[in-house]
Amino acid sequence: MYAYPDKLLNAHVACYFNRSKSWVGDSIKTDELLQREQLSFDITEKYARLFRKELQSNKWESKTFQKEFERTYKQLLQAQKVEQKLFDRETKKGKNAEKTEEWKSNISKELKKLDKYAASTFTLKLKT
Predict the structure, then answer these.
(1) Contact indicator for 8, 125 with CB cutoff of 8 Å
(2) What per-residue confidence (pLDDT) applies to 83?
(3) Sign of CA dihedral 15, 16, 21, 25
């Protein structure tokens, strides 16, 4: 029986800010609103890092990778949406300064824990 080598897959998982989709317009920019937007981005970056972690930490089978990739992506996207809504509700969309600072601190700590997964490009090994 011949053992085939693992397949290598170059992956790129990026989190980006689309300025044209931001609801903060030039005429209403305030430090409060910009901080809220930054925290929203940071929450999304947290989930991008969690996705990278999942992709890099698991042993993936070539035959099932696409299905598992999509399942993992959808689960993390749903969790990100739930957390974003919780952030908006608890901070009153960034208007509650005390709660916003609490969120800022917590998200910063979580991002720090996921520093290992900050790079958007990486290589995966798929078992054949």
Answers:
(1) yes
(2) 98
(3) positive
With residues binned 3-state (H G I as helix, E B as strand, rest as coil), the percentages for the chain, rounded to 5, are: 60, 10, 25
> How many whole angstroms separate alpha carbon 125 and alpha carbon 19?
35
Please, which pLDDT band fits residue 26 given cuts at 50, 70 and 90? low
Per-residue tokens: 111: 């991002």
Question: What is the overall mean pLDDT for the chain?
Answer: 88
Residue 11: its H or E element = strand 7-12
Bridge partners (DSSP) listed for residue 8: 125
Listed by start position, the domains of the chain span: 7-18+35-127
Cα–Cα distances in Å, from 62 out to 20, 66, 78, 94, 95?
A: 38, 8, 25, 44, 47
Q: What is d(CA 66, CA 37) in angstroms, rounded to the nearest whole number? A: 32
Classify 29 as helix, strand or coil.
Answer: coil
